[in-house]
Design goal:
alpha/beta, GMP Synthetase, Chain A, domain 3, binds 5'-O-[hydroxy(phenylacetyl)phosphoryl]adenosine, 21 strands, 4-stranded antiparallel beta sheet, Rossmann fold
């Protein structure tokens, strides 16, 4: 089943015509309504009328997460407040998040692309979709929700967490499609096994997993454990949320909904465009967004585009699964964490020499974050005398900063590796390549 055959299967020529038309409108509106774009276009000496072909997009300046943060909270909106009917933020827990604002039409489009994504993952009216992405400011929960309702499936808005309840609902409601992060899917599989649940007794058909990096090996594990077809969904708050791209059952890359989001791949060092098939940083431009048009957003996600024919019949360009980032952003249990946030927390602690190392592991399929800190004698003040107290205090400070629990290990002074160049602060033992 294809949700929107016309949009998903049109010829490349027709689609490019549509993209150009929409690009021109977007650029003109951004320039007219958003001071940030006016400023950057003027600085680059570009006027909206200079965009005459899709290749001209390259002339436009990039937009970064920092630019969006500087416009916090609503500086990137291109419409009056009255027209914005919903907001979401990126999933980091502290620091200024990036805000995304939606008009009624934007929510309509979000529902449309999510309906396409879910249909690609075999959803129809007869399905019960257990949506275990978090509801709230995170885009995962409501994004899937809008798409599921558009398709007409029954959405079970259970949100994240409470694994026991997830298992019960999955059994009692005969859930046929599950949506969550891939690491949570693996964990669910483990819990099912432990509880002796036979997957033959479940009704699972497919799963729509994303919001963090995962691998082919993880796909195999999830499919075996849950007895379903595991497909990859990609998206980001700044652009719309989930529903920028989705894998079809051919499992040969994620179809980008390019009539709404225009993808480019650049070399992140030279910022030059790369050809199809070449691996680089994904850059996205919204083509239909009203509330917050985004031009040439540097996602920092690494992938490549391919345009060869897909067996499913869709002509939408495909992107490879994300294999890395150009920065040090980590996603821990679906939440964005930058090592600098941990450093900031450590620097607030008196007497602490900020020699630290962050170790990310995935024991039993859920991310764990360990922070090793050198235990200098200075840390032990009159009030805190014991190792356990110091450890708890540091864990609390980090928790306040990033909103996640971490394990702090105090190690001998001067025992962490010193580096002569760039310090290696993060050891990510999860494998994504
Ligand atoms: O994670 C939106 C989403 C929700 C996508 C549910 C899929 C499912 P943010 O919290 O803003 O939005 O994080 C966006 O997450 O730039 C990638 O680095 C990473 N990411 C998202 N999907 C994937 C994926 C949501 N399928 C950031 N594979 C992005 C790898 C992903 N990384």
């Amino acid at each position: 089943m294809i949700w929107n055959k016309e949009a998903e299967c049109m010829s490349r020529e027709d689609r490019e015509k549509l993209q150009l038309e929409r690009l021109k409108e977007t650029v003109a509106r951004a320039y007219e309504k958003v001071p940030y774009y006016r400023k950057t276009f003027d600085a680059a000496n570009i006027k909206p009328d200079d965009i005459k072909s899709l290749d001209d997009l390259e002339k436009l300046p990039f937009t970064t997460k920092t630019d969006l943060r500087e416009a916090y909270p609503f500086g990137m909106f291109a419409v009056n407040d009255e027209e914005i009917i919903e907001v979401h933020t990126s999933s980091g827990t502290t620091g200024k998040p990036t805000v995304s604002g939606y008009t009624r039409e934007d929510l309509e489009i979000w529902g449309e692309v999510m309906a396409r994504a879910l249909t690609m993952a075999l959803a129809d009216k007869s399905d019960r979709i257990q949506n275990c992405y978090g509801y709230g400011l995170f885009t995962g929960g409501l994004g899937v929700h809008y798409g599921a309702q558009k398709v007409g499936s029954t959405v079970i808005p259970i949100s994240a967490g409470n694994t026991q309840r997830q298992v019960e609902i999955m059994q009692d409601f005969k859930t046929s499609i599950i949506t969550c992060t891939p690491s949570y899917a693996l964990y669910l599989g483990e819990v099912l096994k432990k509880q002796g649940v036979d997957i033959e007794d479940l009704n699972l058909k497919s799963g729509v997993f994303g919001a963090e990096m995962w691998t082919e090996e993880m796909r195999n594990e999830i499919e075996n454990r849950l007895g379903l077809l595991a497909l990859n969904i990609y998206g980001l708050t700044e652009i719309i949320g989930p529903g920028v791209a989705q894998e079809c059952p051919q499992k040969n890359g994620l179809h980008v909904f390019e009539d709404h989001f225009y993808p480019e791949i650049i070399d992140s060092k030279t910022q030059e465009s790369l050809a199809d098939g070449e691996k680089g940083e994904l850059v996205l431009t919204t083509l239909t967004r009203e509330g917050m048009p985004i031009i040439r957003f540097r996602t920092k996600d690494i992938t490549a585009l391919k345009r060869d024919k897909c067996g499913c019949g869709r002509t939408l360009v495909r992107m490879d699964r994300i294999t890395g980032r150009t920065d040090d952003m980590l996603k821990i249990r679906g939440v964005i964490v930058f090592p600098s946030q941990i450093e900031r927390a450590l620097l607030k602690i008196e007497g602490l020499d900020p020699q630290y190392q962050i170790i990310v592991t995935r024991p039993r399929h859920l991310d764990e974050l360990e922070v090793q800190v050198e235990a200098s004698p200075m840390l032990f003040s009159d009030e805190v005398k014991h190792v356990e107290e110091v450890k708890n205090m540091i864990e609390r400070k980090i928790h306040n900063e990033i909103g996640l629990r971490v394990n702090v290990t105090l190690v001998e002074p001067e025992s962490l590796p010193r580096s002569e160049g760039k310090a290696i602060r993060v050891i990510d033992k999860r494998k994504f390549d």
